[in-house]
User: Which sequence fits this backbone?
């Protein structure tokens, strides 16, 4: 009898396991076979299968941020889901919990391997064979290359061979091209000329960090050459923050009401000799009130800083979007681009809630008083060179070699900054036309950063870039280095 | 009509009204990206007014306090008058700071500099008052002191702002 009961229990357990298996099967892999080095985002890929389909809920745990995702899982179809994952090294290992139709969730622990940040990854059998003996290299499966370009910040360099490159899907290839556009160290081995040409056109930093070699050549030397290149760091998020303005959405009516009320009370207190001392204290109270009621409305600002060499066809940039909460507590932000191109976010505890039915990922964050959340993005875009500087001993001329009128720009030449007006194509401007900008104008944050970043270069240009969409307080600049060309033809002017 | 005592606080309010009015007009008309520049200009205007006013009025406040407590050099009343002139502006400066993203540290340095300027001028003025120069010459010297101090503030105003970080 006891044996029968035990057998029944075992059978019921097996049936339950089978049912659970039928409800949901899930596999999770982290980009670069789980290699993580920084608290920047990496990518988590999930493959979910359910014979009967239903509403899938996924929640990550132990990450920073954590992601919650709800979507409809079709029956009998293996669905691939990619979400951003930030690994919190100080906490417990990241885990993903998945459930169908709100049944008991399954938990899958994510395998991550922390490294010191100097790891180079090798993708493909040929790349592994040729380079694995080098220090700080690791072979990873091509399938684990991320689809999100920011995930490439987890590795310092990447070498990939032709067959492995050909096996990448379109999004992985796009992310790899973006990596080259962000001055990522990339070695291509045995790739075809058309592919090499595509990468050359997308590589920023004048292509210093990109090499393409054949397997018969000295592959190790080529890899060492790109690893030896000094890194060009874009401005830090602190420097970007100084360029940012989030003061756009001010509740003017409330401010004026407050100020008039304050003036009236203060004046009355001052007119009465018995309350003159109280008037002093009222100044302090008024200040406190301002700090409590400000910001009256949520505000948002965006700034981007791009840099390119004179001959670069691609500029790489870093951008920051800042949200300032109107009050403490839970804030919700639409995050249109987060799913397509997640970004590092700093400044607040937050999670990403993504309901695929609404097709709109939302960012949910818990704001403290005057809490702010910064979203950092990186990327590259194509640029064309229009302005060229020609210098003599004591004057500098700027020519517009483009086909259209140039935008307003600034020229840095030997430490002095000039405001360059828009120039017609084929014509020029010269420094004898106007004086260098004075010290009080150079106090503008973007010009201060321009001068800092121009250190060591004789000639640089700074142009404001148009920013469409997004925050009203949106600014962007492009800095071009080494823009002088003494040997070229003079401007026609 | 009852006589209204012109106190430092009232003088301060009188200075703040035109600056705040200008700033609100700017807020009403400007796009977001330019509001921080307008706010920074308003901050500089208020600080300049404070520096000039404490320079010009501190001798008078010192003389008034000397009348009340002639034996105390650099009396607390003179310092309180300077503080009473500065404090009314703080709510407006707080709004401008938040609109211009100027750091709290820069503001603290600026207001401390105004306070020190006022106390210094008041102290020197009280020192002149202690000299046996005669009433007319004493008053003239104190007025001249205020004018010289205000002139120095005006001439070196850009350097002041640069040093303060504004």
Assistant:
């Amino acid at each position: 009898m006891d044996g029968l009961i035990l057998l029944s229990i075992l059978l019921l357990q097996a049936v339950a396991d089978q049912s659970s298996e039928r409800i949901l099967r899930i596999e999770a892999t982290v980009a670069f076979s789980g290699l993580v080095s920084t608290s920047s985002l990496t990518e988590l890929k999930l493959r979910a299968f359910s014979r009967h389909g239903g509403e899938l809920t996924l929640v990550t745990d132990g990450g920073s941020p954590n992601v919650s995702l709800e979507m409809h899982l079709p029956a009998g179809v293996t669905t691939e889901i990619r979400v951003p994952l930030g690994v919190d090294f100080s906490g417990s290992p990241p885990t993903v919990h998945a459930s169908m139709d709100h049944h008991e969730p399954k938990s899958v622990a994510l395998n991550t391997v922390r490294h010191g940040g100097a790891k180079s990854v090798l993708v493909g059998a040929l790349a592994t064979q040729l380079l694995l003996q080098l220090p700080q290299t690791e072979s990873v499966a091509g399938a684990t290359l991320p689809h999100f370009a920011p995930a490439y910040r987890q590795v310092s360099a990447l070498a990939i061979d032709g067959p492995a490159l050909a096996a990448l899907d379109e999004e992985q290839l796009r992310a790899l091209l973006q990596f080259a556009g962000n001055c990522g160290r990339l070695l291509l081995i045995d790739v075809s000329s058309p592919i090499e040409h595509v990468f050359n056109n997308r590589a920023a930093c004048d292509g210093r960090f990109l090499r393409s070699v054949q397997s018969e050549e000295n592959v190790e030397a080529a890899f060492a050459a790109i690893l030896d290149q000094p890194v060009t760091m874009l401005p830090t998020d602190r420097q970007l923050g100084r360029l940012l303005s989030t003061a756009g959405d001010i509740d003017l009516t409330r401010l004026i009401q407050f100020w008039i009320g304050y003036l009236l009370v203060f004046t009355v207190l001052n007119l009465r000799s018995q309350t003159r001392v109280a008037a002093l204290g009222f100044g302090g109270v008024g200040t406190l009130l301002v700090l409590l009621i400000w910001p009256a409305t949520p505000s948002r600002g965006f700034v981007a800083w791009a840099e390119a060499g004179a001959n670069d066809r691609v500029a790489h940039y870093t951008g920051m979007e800042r949200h300032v909460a109107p009050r403490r507590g839970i804030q919700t932000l639409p995050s249109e681009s987060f799913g397509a191109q997640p970004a590092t976010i700093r400044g607040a505890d937050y999670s990403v809630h993504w309901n695929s039915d609404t097709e709109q990922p939302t960012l949910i964050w818990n704001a403290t008083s005057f809490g702010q959340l910064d979203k950092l993005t990186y990327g590259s875009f194509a640029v064309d060179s229009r302005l060229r500087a020609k210098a003599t001993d004591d004057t500098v001329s700027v020519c517009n070699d483009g086909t259209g009128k140039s935008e307003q720009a600034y020229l840095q030449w030997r430490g002095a900054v000039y405001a360059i007006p828009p120039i017609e194509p084929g014509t020029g401007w010269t420094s004898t036309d106007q004086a260098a900008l004075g010290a009080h104008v150079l106090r503008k944050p973007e010009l201060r950063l321009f001068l800092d970043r121009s250190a060591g270069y004789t000639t640089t240009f700074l142009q404001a870039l148009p920013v469409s969409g997004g925050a009203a307080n949106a600014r962007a600049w492009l800095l071009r280095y080494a823009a002088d060309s003494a040997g070229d033809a003079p401007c026609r002017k | 009509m009852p006589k209204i005592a012109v106190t430092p606080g009232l003088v301060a309010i009188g200075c703040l009204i035109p600056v705040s009015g200008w700033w609100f007009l700017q807020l009403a008309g400007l796009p977001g990206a330019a509001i921080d520049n307008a706010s920074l200009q308003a901050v500089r205007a208020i600080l300049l007014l404070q520096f000039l006013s404490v320079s010009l009025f501190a001798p008078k406040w010192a003389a008034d306090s000397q009348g009340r407590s002639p034996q105390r050099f650099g009396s607390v009343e003179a310092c309180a008058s300077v503080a009473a002139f500065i404090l009314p502006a703080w709510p407006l400066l707080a709004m401008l700071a938040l609109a211009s993203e100027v750091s709290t540290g820069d503001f603290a340095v600026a207001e401390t500099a105004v306070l020190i300027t006022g106390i210094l001028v008041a102290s020197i003025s009280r020192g002149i008052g202690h000299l046996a120069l005669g009433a007319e010459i004493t008053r003239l010297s104190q007025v001249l002191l205020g004018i010289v101090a205000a002139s120095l503030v005006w001439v070196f105003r850009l350097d002041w702002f640069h040093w303060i970080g504004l």
About this structure: Chain B is about 85% helix and 0% strand.
